[in-house]
Amino acid sequence: MSFDSIQASPDIVFNVKTFGATGDSKTLDTEAINNTINAAVKAGGGTVYFPAGIYLSYSIHLQSHITLYLDQGATILAASPSGDVGYDPPELVVDNNFQDFGHSNWHNSLIWGENLEDVSILGPGIIFGKGLTREGPHKAPIGNKAIALKLCRNVILKDFTILYGGHFGILATGVDNLTIDNLKIDTNRDAIDIDCCKNVRISNCSVNSPWDDGICLKSSYALGYARPTENVTITNCSVSGFDRGTFYNGTYQRNEADLVPDKEGPTGRIKFGTESNGGFKNITINNCVFEYCRGFALETVDGGILEDVTITNISMRDIINSPIFLRLGGRMRAPDGTPVGALRRINISNITVYNADSRFATLISGIPGHDIEDIRLSNISIWYKPLDSSVTNIQQEVPEFEKGYPEPQKFGVIPAYGLFVRHVKNMELSNINLYLIGNEKRPAMIFTDIKGIKLRNVTVDRGSNASLLMLKNVSDLSIKDSKALKDIELKEVQAKSY
């Protein structure tokens, strides 16, 4: 279609109440809502308007050239299934070997669309997933996602709130030209999953997801082929892991950490992976805040290439595992013959972290024969809380854990409190400060199997009876202008401590 053929048309608004919706929170409004959408489609597109009210519903079918507008006081309430009545059935999965069940289905959702263009959900209202499940695979009529989009383009999600979004608050798979702006999400599993998408802008969002990831980029095999997630910006967002619902109601409680599915404390972070068949390319993250959650996780373990990422201007507080976790692994949940991927050209700068969990340090690890490459960390200050006196299971040799699920806790308590780096090629640390809030007996940094590393203006606190830096199988090491570490130039060292 050429632009010359597009005809201007008057704004058309289709009020769901005109088509029979009650908004009384008791009567099922599913049919009325979908009839309103169909009427708008027949008119060539338009806005489906939800005035103030509570609209009880099962699956709502998005269509091309349609905006759903939730006015102030309007809530779309996910109904609880009753007998055989409920949400649309999940699609038949031909091959579910390479991704979790939830990534293979979209129709079993409160709001879903497939192969659409020019779609928006706007307005200050609420999508409340009360009747959605947050658990794994179910047959119809159960729903487990608030919003699910597959193979769409030109999509805008703006200004509304998602409460208790089910297993996924937003699942976007193969969606191009996607804008997510000014959302508040307080949910019970993943908040925003961006999977195999291109040209994505996430901005001004506040995300609380204690039981799973907050903003999560993935590149699964759900489309039946590997497709990268690329050209993504995430800016001016906050992520947290407060108890479910307490971010939205303003009480910010911290009592449910043991209810997280992996039993490892609140999640709520920004993450790349674990599904990583297609890889991640050309991504920037800036001006974001983390509070009471896990730190950054950049992971590629299924053959994808993770490259060209810039992360800057980040503030973190009360981080319950590694503040920065970079992992190239060999889990290889991928078609036979897929090679191990790559993780390279990562620039992380201007980061402040207070009260980080020292059990897992900042952890950067490739695997033997597959180095992480070209990593630059600069202008980073981290204050680590002391290791609890009850912790005695400090790893003497950190397992490679090549094929395991990539999570810092899986490696056990790291033998360095601040920075553990191995299987890396070409790394630079500049203006790095590692501080101790309390007592510590472990060294600050451990570098193993490193091919080229520069330290410039690196300041680290020394624990009692501990080295600052331990080296094993390191080549081309250069240290200059670093407090408590003498200037050093070493071509190769097998084992040494400072």
Which keywords apply here?
single chain, 498 residues, mainly beta, Pectate Lyase C-like, 2 domains, 34-stranded mixed β-sheet, 34 strands, 3% helix, elongated, disordered N terminus
Task: Please characterize this protein's 3D structure.
The protein is mostly beta strands. The chain has two domains: 14-267, Pectate Lyase C-like; 295-498. The chain has one helix at residues 30-42, and strands spanning 13-15, 24-28, 46-50, 53-57, 60-61, 66-70, 74-78, 111-114, 117-122, 126-128, 145-150, 153-158, 161-163, 168-173, 176-181, 184-186, 190-195, 198-203, 206-208, 215-219, 229-235, 238-240, 270-276, 280-293, 296-300, 305-319, 324-328, 342-356, 362-365, 372-384, 419-436, 445-460, 469-480, 488-497. The protein has a 34-stranded mixed beta sheet that branches. The longest helix is centred in the N-terminal third of the chain and has 13 residues, at 30-42. The protein is elongated, with a radius of gyration of 24 Å. The N and C termini lie far apart (67 Å).
Short description:
It contains one helix and 34 strands. The chain has 498 residues and is mainly β.
Domain unit count = 2
User: At the first level of CATH, what is the class of the largest domain?
Assistant: Mainly Beta
Helix content: under 10%
Q: How many strand segments?
A: 34
Strand percent estimate: over 45%
Low-confidence stretches: 1-10
Largest sheet: 34 strands, mixed
